[in-house]
Design brief:
- The complex is a heterotrimer of chains A (about 400), B (about 600) and C (about 290).
- By secondary structure, chain A is α/β, with parallel strands linked by helices.
- Chain A folds into 2 domains: about 190 residues, Rossmann fold (3-Layer(aba) Sandwich), CATH 3.40.50; about 150 residues, Response regulator (Rossmann fold), CATH 3.40.50.
- Chain A is built from 13 helices and 15 strands.
- Chain B is an alpha/beta fold.
- In chain B, the strands form 3 sheets. Chain B has a 6-stranded mixed beta sheet with strand order 8-9-10-5-11-12, with helices on both faces. In chain B, strands 4-3-6-7 form a 4-stranded antiparallel beta sheet, with helices on one face. A two-stranded antiparallel ribbon of chain B has the order 1-2.
- The longest helix of chain B has 27 residues.
- Chain B starts with about 25 loop residues before the first helix and ends with a helix.
- With about 290 residues, chain C is an all-alpha fold.
- Classes of the chains: A alpha/beta (about 400), B alpha/beta (about 600), C mainly alpha (about 290).
- Chains B and C meet through α4, α5, α11 and α13 of B and α3, α4, α9 and α11 of C.
Chain lengths: ~400, ~600, ~290
């Protein structure tokens, strides 16, 4: 695309407008691959989730391509490891949307990078699919091309609150977090929700995750009369210390909270295995054992994975399922709507009851959060088997 | 020796290493690339370039702190954080409910950075290097923690959207040019500072702090100005960063980023502007082309830092400095020309005198000086001799304000000279040299000598920063004066050479040239003949004598008895901190105790 | 409640004190503050967990191996990052060289060990029903290590010839060299000792702090605070400063909680340094003309 020097110097209004209007893309040869820009965090801190999701995404893309691709066109996954670093994510967005001309963006996963990447992707008018839970990423007015295939933090908190207040019928709750953005915001969001449900929040605090001694915190919760502890953190060391302290105090209250409560790292840091009893973490109905069996879609998925010899020992079913669903959703969109951004959005706006492994997705033009509330459940963390957990006691099956 | 006849070589303007625009062609090339990059119409390049410009705006200021002044401010990313949050929060109306205009918010971000630059910098005035490094590191951690906690303003962990700048610098190439222009501006003002007397003073603080003080450089005042500037640039960079990122959260401001700024500067080379600019660009761009190595990036940065520190402490700037790799003439001779002194020292002043009365000073239990009386008169050379440990250098340090004696008085023409303020001596036109030459090894001989005249300029820091007329005037006069001083001591042919390439004897004369820059009323020389050949000592003697005949009072601490007796008008002999004898050379020579105890004749 | 503050405060404080002593031992030998102090502390925990949990070694053997690793790292630190820049100590290049080395090691740990905190085994199992069970290993082990270290160092410095040589170097390396003391060898020995003390801190404190790469930064800072408080080079000062810091930090954790505790520690650190740069117990430095 020739641009005269004069045009450039005349003010960037011209070039910015040119970018914004999206010059008609040159006709793409029929066999050229369809590009998905992919922003996983595969290394660096908090990368285990990214690695799990990546496994599912890669598998799905391989499968689609093996079966002939989308109308003869292969899917090309252009992935940029962000290491959860927002600056790397911003660079990668520019590369994927503007250089590689990706048809869709998948990711990023962590809050800081997702918050930075989303407005830029929206500015470039590239449709995107979110695995990230941060609520503000979805806003049909600001980001009309962003869709979420995962629950929001609000839904996740609602699921936990629902379990404590309505299923376990406990009314006095202690809500704590570490000092990270995720933790502090979760507490600040969930406490009013709990109060609205009629629960009494008897204790709340943000605690430095490096603090080796949580006994003072738990003692204060105990003396405040807490009947359940709801910790919001992705720090396994912090969460395990809560379990350990509770166990050492012989304090028999349930711990209900974030999925990391059930991670292998948390388990490894427990002083005694039984300290993991009565600990319930978020999970998703489609990926939990209900009455000892996985729901049919997940069961079939696991069979397929076993056939492909995918290991589960080091990851979780729902991570792999999320990665798989994301890629499959995009593949199906390309198949039905082609690769033009407006067509993609028009198609996704009408997705209804799409049967994913991870969740059943429904979008409307007004609501781009596609995950249903009732599929966010709690599970027993000490029941891990083949990457999945038993649904927590008390739910109707 | 070349060109020994012309008093001052004006044929070629010697370009000092310090802050000269190290070959302006490099800058022109960089500028052209920056201006024309939008022609490629590749927004990905655009984003990377904007990032490089923004990081450089911060690094340009930090370069004065780290590269010039040698203050190891590891946590300077805190200024980026502060600027980013200030700009973003004000523009988003998170403070006081009023949405600031983005440009105003950016200025506020710069102001915030400047204020905290000084606050963080203050400990550097009192603390040792490592302590200072630790405090900046701690501060960077605290700023992030506060950003997390102060949810109303910063948005906490969810963060806050960055400002969107309006016409003419709207997102896209408009913002690109905004960053480009500000980066150019940052380069220009820091290069101006670097090449001014302030820049030389900073380097002197880094490499030869004692000599800097003796030349009248007030470290606190200068460092505060530099921290103000560096903090302000860091804050501006932060404001731009928040716009580039579109959204800021505390996890965007990592310690790795701080290390990156730091390494960019050190790769470039301390005391250079171009080198660090290239270093910053390389470190911003490189990871984009080494994506598979992303996991190892911090490791590689650290390894690079280690290699630079150990192998090429001079960085890129040194590698580019071809001129100083040319061999120097082997058999050089120092031929001072005392006849030029009148032009260096100016008109003779009124006769005056420094008087020490009953000075006593202890180190622990040791009496270094024990009731000393001494008078240094203008126009005379006063010799101070005595065995090792008799208190000669201590006396000199008392006069130049490094030591506060326990008792006694030190007066200049009847008025008390303050103690504990060595940098104030330059104001009294009391200059000195050191037993071990104190020099800025990486700077040219000319620049080293110009350091001696730092207090003689009229232009302010801001005038230098903006390259205003008074700055140019100062520079011109200082250079002329320094060349005169160099010609006087016989080193003008080495003006452009890095000082650390000089021979020991040449450094002794260079220190005298630096002292002459004060047009000193008094000059304290600490063993200037040590390590000189007999012929050089003779020439030195003639030079010192000539200096005194121009009206300067000279105090000469020496071991070479011949030199003392040749040129001194009066001599004081110290022993165990006390005056053993005082008088004319002839009297001393015949003093029985001196002869038996010291001269050993 | 108070018991919790005191016991954890002393335990954490003992770890800080040991890191502070690590700084001091290196400083005394070379006038260099090295960023490797925190790295050693971090490695003590990581290597201990690696040897015992991953490789299934006997705890005593693992402990000895960790000490040996610390000594080796100390020597490498001296040879690689300190000796080459000692000539130009005025330029403080050691800050950068030791920081670079520490960062490199930390990154290797992050990549091969992982960025998640991992557990450290219980070394001395105590029957939970016995009377001894009230004192947890994670509490008494670092305190014991701190006592052993400070007593050992005092004996070494005051009672042995080689210890006096260390002191002579610390007082005046120039004069010590003139006396014919082998300065380089003594410096290497000091770095080896410092390496062992550093990993000892990490090893004994790891049950509390876990085997975690991020401990490096934490220990670098909190281990330096006792040095700043107690005066550089003073091991007794470091112990007092470390314990005081530990107690203050735990009390702040308990009373104000969350991030304000770390802000409070930082504020105290800065204020003390600005008011008394030589530390609460230290003497002012001599002039350098």
């Amino acid at each position: 695309m020739p641009v005269s020097r004069r045009q450039v110097l005349a003010g960037s209004a011209v070039s910015a407008a040119a970018l914004a209007s999206g010059f008609p893309a040159p006709a793409i040869a029929q066999n050229e691959p369809i590009k998905i820009g992919y922003l996983p965090a595969l290394t660096g801190p908090s990368s285990s989730t990214g690695v799990g999701i990546n496994r599912g995404t890669q598998l799905a893309v391989e499968l689609v391509n093996k079966e002939g691709g989308i109308k003869g066109r292969k899917i090309e996954l252009i992935s940029r490891d962000t290491q959860s670093d927002p600056t790397k994510a911003v660079n990668a967005v520019a590369e994927l949307t503007q250089r590689a001309k990706a048809s869709m963006i998948w990711g990023p996963l962590n809050s800081g990078e997702a918050l930075a990447a989303t407005p830029l992707i929206a500015r470039d008018k590239v449709p995107m699919l979110h695995p990230c839970w941060v609520d503000s990423l979805i806003d049909v007015k600001k980001y009309p091309m962003s869709f979420r295939i995962a629950p929001t933090n609000t839904q996740v908190g609602k699921g936990a609150n629902h379990y404590v207040v309505n299923v376990l019928k406990l009314k006095k709750v202690a809500v704590i977090s570490d000092t990270t953005g995720y933790g502090t915001d979760s507490v600040n969001t969930y406490v009013p929700m709990l109060k609205a449900m009629g629960a009494e929040v008897v204790y709340t605090n943000h605690i430095d995750a490096a603090n080796p001694d949580l006994k003072p915190e738990l003692l204060r919760m105990q003396s405040a009369g807490a009947q359940a502890i709801m910790p919001w953190s992705v720090n396994a060391g912090f969460l395990s210390r809560i379990c350990n302290t509770r166990g050492a105090m012989n304090w028999d209250v349930p711990i209900v909270g974030q999925t990391t409560l059930g991670s292998g790292q948390t388990k490894a840091l427990l002083e005694k295995p039984e300290y993991w009893n009565k600990v319930y973490s978020n999970n998703f109905r489609n990926c939990c054992y209900i009455g000892g069996k996985l729901p049919p879609r997940a069961a079939e998925f696991v069979e397929r994975l076993k056939k492909d010899k995918v290991e589960f020992g080091d990851t979780l079913l729902w991570w792999v399922a999320l990665g798989w669903d994301g890629a499959m959703m995009m593949a199906e969109t390309f198949k039905n709507a082609g690769t033009k951004n407006d067509d993609i959005v028009a198609y996704m706006n009408k997705v209804k009851g799409w049967p994913g492994i991870y969740g059943t997705v429904t979008w409307t033009p007004e609501q781009h959060n596609g995950f249903p509330d009732q599929e966010v459940v709690m599970c027993e963390v000490n029941s891990l088997k083949d990457g999945a957990f038993n649904i927590a006691p008390g739910y109707s099956s | 020796m070349t060109d020994a006849t012309s008093p001052i070589s004006t044929a070629k303007a010697p370009a000092g290493w310090l802050g000269r625009l190290e070959g302006s062609w490099s800058w022109i090339a960089l500028g052209l690339v920056g201006l024309l990059l939008p022609l490629l119409d590749d927004s990905y390049f655009g984003v990377i370039a904007q990032r490089a410009y923004i990081y450089w705006i911060l690094s340009a200021g930090l370069n004065l702190v780290v590269g010039y002044a040698g203050q190891i401010a590891i946590g300077w990313v805190a200024m980026l954080t502060l600027g980013a949050y200030t700009t973003a929060a004000l523009a988003a109306g998170r403070v006081g409910g009023v949405e600031w205009h983005p440009y105003l918010a950016l200025i506020a971000g710069g102001a915030m950075g400047a204020v905290f630059g000084v606050i963080v910098g203050l400990p550097a005035l009192r603390l040792r290097t490592f302590y200072f490094a630790m405090t900046t590191l701690g501060f960077a951690t605290i700023v992030t923690q506060v950003a997390l906690a102060w949810k109303d303003v910063t948005g906490g962990g969810v963060g806050t959207p960055g400002p969107v700048f309006l016409w003419p610098f709207e997102p896209g190439w408009g913002f690109y040019y905004f960053c480009f222009l500000l980066a150019a501006l940052a380069t220009w003002i820091t290069a101006n500072i670097g090449s001014s007397r302030y820049g030389r003073a900073l380097v002197a603080i880094r490499d030869a702090e004692v000599a800097a003080e003796a030349s009248g450089i007030a470290k606190p005042k200068l460092l505060i100005l530099v921290f103000l500037l560096a903090g302000g640039l860091g804050g501006i960079a932060g404001g731009l960063f928040s716009s580039l990122q579109s959204y800021i959260t505390p996890d965007a401001f990592t310690f790795e980023m701080s290390v990156l700024f730091f390494i960019g500067i050190l790769i470039g080379g301390r005391g250079s502007i171009l080198g660090p600019a290239l270093g910053t660009i390389i470190l911003t761009v490189l990871p984009e082309f080494a994506a598979p190595l992303v996991q190892w990036s911090t490791f590689l940065y650290a390894a690079l830092l280690l290699v630079i520190v150990l192998v090429i402490p001079g960085g890129i700037a040194d590698l580019l400095d071809y001129k100083n790799r040319r061999p120097l003439e082997q058999h050089r001779e120092i031929v001072p020309r005392p006849e030029l002194l009148s032009r260096v020292l100016g008109a003779k002043g009124e006769p005056s005198a420094i008087r020490l009365a009953n000075i006593a000073l202890h180190f622990g239990g040791v009496r270094a000086i024990d009731g000393l009386d001494l008078e240094i008169r203008s126009g005379e050379v006063h010799g101070l001799i005595g065995p090792n440990g008799s208190g000669k250098t201590t006396t000199l340090n008392v006069i130049s304000g490094y030591y506060r004696p326990k008792t006694g008085s030190l007066k200049l023409d009847g008025a008390d000279l303050p103690f504990d303020k060595p940098h104030a001596r330059a104001g009294y036109r009391i200059a000195r040299t050191f037993q071990t030459p104190r020099l800025v090894g990486a700077a040219s001989v000319l620049a080293n000598v110009m350091i001696g005249g730092t207090v003689r300029g009229d232009g302010t820091f801001v005038e230098s920063m903006l390259s205003l007329p008074r700055h140019h005037n100062d520079e011109k006069q200082l250079k002329v004066a320094a060349l005169k001083a160099l010609a006087t001591v016989g080193l003008e042919s080495l003006a452009d050479v890095r000082a650390d390439r000089l021979q020991h004897s040449e450094l002794r004369f260079m220190e005298i040239a630096r002292a002459l820059m004060l047009r000193p009323a008094f000059m304290l020389l600490d063993e200037p003949a040590a390590g000189l050949s007999a012929e050089e000592i003779r020439r030195l003697g003639a030079l010192i004598k000539a200096i005194s005949r121009e009206g300067t009072g000279v105090l000469l601490v020496e071991h070479h008895a011949d030199l003392i007796f040749d040129i001194c008008d009066r001599v004081t002999v110290l022993n165990l901190g006390k005056t053993l004898a005082a008088g004319t050379p002839a009297e001393i020579r015949s003093h029985r105790e001196v002869v038996s105890a010291y001269l050993g004749a | 409640m108070l018991q919790s503050i005191v016991s954890y405060g002393l335990a954490v404080g003992a770890v800080y004190a040991l890191i502070g002593i690590t700084y001091n031992v290196m400083f005394s030998a070379s006038r260099v503050f090295s960023f490797t102090a925190g790295m050693l502390g971090m490695l003590g925990g990581v290597l201990g967990a690696l040897f015992i949990n991953k490789l299934g070694m006997n705890a005593v053997l693992a402990f000895l191996l960790v000490l040996a690793a610390g000594a080796v790292l100390g020597v490498i630190t001296e040879i690689l990052t300190v000796r080459p820049v000692l000539k130009s100590i005025e330029q403080h290049l050691y800050v950068l060289s030791t920081l670079a080395f520490a960062l490199m090691i930390q990154q290797v740990v992050a990549i091969y060990w992982g960025t998640e905190a991992q557990p450290f085994p219980v070394l001395v199992p105590i029957d939970p029903n016995s009377a001894l069970s009230i004192i947890d290993q994670k509490i008494w082990l670092p305190v014991l290590a701190c006592i052993v270290t400070i007593v050992g160092l005092e004996l070494l410095y005051r009672r042995t010839l080689i210890g006096r040589a260390f002191l002579a170097i610390a007082e005046d390396s120039y004069a010590a060299r003139a006396l014919g003391l082998p300065e380089t060898q003594l410096r290497i020995a000091s770095y080896a000792i410092a390496g062992m003390i550093g990993v000892l801190a990490g090893f004994t404190g790891a049950q509390m702090l876990l085997a975690y790469f991020g401990n490096q930064a934490i220990l670098n800072f909190y281990g330096f605070v006792p040095v700043a408080l107690g005066g550089m080079g003073s091991n007794r000062g470091a112990v007092v400063g470390g314990l005081a810091l530990g107690l203050f930090q735990q009390a702040a954790n308990f009373l104000v909680g969350g991030i304000f505790a770390s802000v409070a520690v930082f504020a105290v650190f800065i204020v003390v340094l600005l008011l008394r740069p030589e530390g609460l117990a230290g003497a002012a430095a001599a002039r350098r003309v």
